[in-house]
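Chapter review. Work through the record for N-acetyltransferase domain-containing protein before attempting the end-of-chapter questions.
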Amino acid sequence: MIETKRLYLRELQPSDREALSKILQDEQTMYAYEGAFNDIEVQAWLDKQLKSYQRNGFGLWAAVLKETGEMIG
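Structure tokens for N-acetyltransferase domain-containing protein:
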């Protein structure tokens, strides 16, 4: 885990699906991805990240606000 004054960065977890859906299903956030993901695409994206940790030893991390515990990226 990496920490800053306001955030911590950590590996994604299966339990992050709901918070991740709020990000990946937001049209404004996902404009660079050619649009928001549907439920199946969110799960597939999360599964890909989780497999990357196992297979490669690294992957994308969650950015979480320390004060609230909210995932923001």
